Amino acid sequence: xxxxxxxxxxxxxxxxxxxxxxxxxxxxxxxxxxxxxxxxxxxxxxxxxxxxxxxxxxxxxxxxxxxxxxxxxxxxxxxxxxxxxxxxxxxxxxxxxxxxxxxxxxxxxxxxxxxxxxxxxxxxxxxxxxxxxxxxxxxxxxxxxxxxxxxxxxxxxxxxxxxxxxxxxxxxxxxxxxxxxxxxxxxxxxxxxxxxxxxxxxxxxxxxxxxxxxxxxxxxxxxxxxxxxxxxxxxxxxxxxxxxxxxxxxxxxxxxxxxxxxxxxxxxxxxxxxxxxxxxxxxxxxxxx
Length: 289
Known about the structure:
It contains eleven helices and 13 strands.
């Protein structure tokens, strides 16, 4: 039977606040973070601010996939809550095996489960889930959601992030030491986005913090192009004042948005990008992509 009561599932890298997730019937599977004093669940008993403190002390936590047991418990809870189908939008497979973990669960879950690779994270991932929640509330059905809408939203999501330092990307093995050292010496602030394969890639490089905000907005505007319907999102990792400026300039440049959402960078991504992070995203809603 085609599911009628649809739940949404994601992981802690979607950067949804507990209230926002609850309000939109989104269940969150936490990734695990391994620290010097034990294992924590991202967004449950450890968050971005905790990671920043540890990084500043010289500790470099490790990240790990969610447990299959935790996934099974969440799917059981979804069923007990009265849902008869689940759409999952997970962190990019280019960064994590979380999507594959959930995709494999399609075989044994006791209710229909359709998993999507967001090819993104944080803003891009969260935007897709929140728009799907709106579509479900507006009566969109399972077939349209899974065959058309979710793929459209994923393809139309364009997140951009500034990284205040390249140090943690280098320590985490995401970039080379020479690149990181040169970047820090020149005070280069890279703007990152996601490539088509879901890997992090450079969208731009600016020198100094002051240019970061204008470049984030410029990239979002260019990604929007001539599209008339779109959602916006902004995020920060330990930089709320900067996020407020991004929001102000982004909404001035793109004032006709359907929705605007805010987020805080999760603990998992914070391990690799540190604090001082700013993000801006646009999600195209037009039928023609």
